[in-house]
Amino acid sequence: MTYFVDDKGFYGEFGGAYIPEILHKCVHDLQDAYLPIMESDDFKREYHSLLQDYVGRPSPLYYAKRMSEKYGCRLYLKREDLNHTGAHKINNAIGQALLARRMGKTHIIAETGAGQHGVATATACALLGMDCKVFMGKTDIERQHTNVERMRMLGAEVCPVTTGNMTLSDACSEAIRYWCCHPSDTFYVVGSTMGPHPYPDLVARMQSIISEELKWQLREKTGRDYPDCLIACIGGGSNAAGTIYHYADNEHVRIILAEAGGSGIDSGRTAATLHCGSVGILHGSRMLVMQDEDGQIEEAYSISAGLDYPGVGPMHCNMVTKGRSKVFAINDDEAIRAGYELTRLEGIIPAIESAHAVAALSKVKFNADDVVVLTVSGRGDKDIETYLKYGDDI
């Protein structure tokens, strides 16, 4: 069984391109252009040169000795937090900015929640001399102030979004509205494996550098090119897609995903879409969505600004529905504790998004010789105030 996109833009029953007429031409132009450009020698040469010399790839694969002893396995951490800008988001942002330039686009827009994709996009635009506008919910602007100032310092315009609960989903909606009004010269750099086809596939391919590196790094460290288990946090699904991309069809590899449980999946304050969602259409794609009985999108909640999205990318919806991936809902308090645990046992402060993945370790039974890879998708500098606010009793 294959879990990749088909020629119509679907992953099983999920995916597609549900778009307003005004965006029809620019989305179809992207569908026609992205693979020929990405597979060209010129693009590959420039992209991989920037990944190496600018982003700092390959990111290390670190054996976490003390955490391994605690959880009874051989735990390796894929250190995306050590990339330039502090997260995996830069892999995709630079790639899409290069793609946009080759398509003749001059104006870049993006959405952001925790600010990491916004910072990455602003960074790529500063590097390439492109105009940049980032949409960010007012709630997220207040809790991610440092990233907001980083974006502005890089020359991006940060546009506060005051609709809904003023977080990631609302930022996506506002970016799409802007795109509808400026379709000809604007390229929307989508930050996760969501949106109309080809974005879920495009972002997954950009992030697949993570698992591409894992294959040779694991061979060097363990003598084989695959782990027994992969673990990643999931909101829209970009770091998870990159982590599992080259292992999706390898049934020897368990896939564990950690989504944001918020205050609990039955609390009404959650972002656990894979537990609580039903099939619907959001931001141009058919996916699992948190919605009421009338199909109205429900507000997602999480302590993590990067995981409080009321949908999940179609690649992951398909894999979870088919039983390929196992998903745990990690509550806020569990994520905070896990973040402190990694910090104190390994000296690595993870983003709160990544701390959800760390918390999943306690929910899985391992054998002593199991090779487990956990992707630390971002560093926790941006979340220090949140850790301090909620970690007093830890």
From TrEMBL:
It is an enzyme of class 4 (lyase). Its cofactor is pyridoxal 5'-phosphate. One of its GO terms (cellular component) is cytoplasm. CDD domains: Trp-synth_B (cd06446). It catalyses: (1S,2R)-1-C-(indol-3-yl)glycerol 3-phosphate + L-serine = D-glyceraldehyde 3-phosphate + L-tryptophan + H2O. The keyword Amino-acid biosynthesis applies. Pathway: Amino-acid biosynthesis; L-tryptophan biosynthesis; L-tryptophan from chorismate: step 5/5. InterPro entries: Trp_synth_b_CS, Trp_synth_beta, Trp_synth_beta/beta-like, TrpB-like_PALP, TrpB-like_PALP_sf. SUPFAM superfamilies: Tryptophan synthase beta subunit-like PLP-dependent enzymes. GO terms for molecular function: tryptophan synthase activity. Pfam families: PALP (PF00291). Its EC number is 4.2.1.20. The modification N6-(pyridoxal phosphate)lysine is found at residue 89. Residues 56-378 form the Tryptophan synthase beta chain-like PALP domain. Keywords: Amino-acid biosynthesis, Aromatic amino acid biosynthesis, Lyase, Pyridoxal phosphate, Tryptophan biosynthesis. The beta subunit is responsible for the synthesis of L-tryptophan from indole and L-serine. Belongs to the TrpB family. Tetramer of two alpha and two beta chains. This is Tryptophan synthase beta chain. It comes from Marseilla massiliensis.
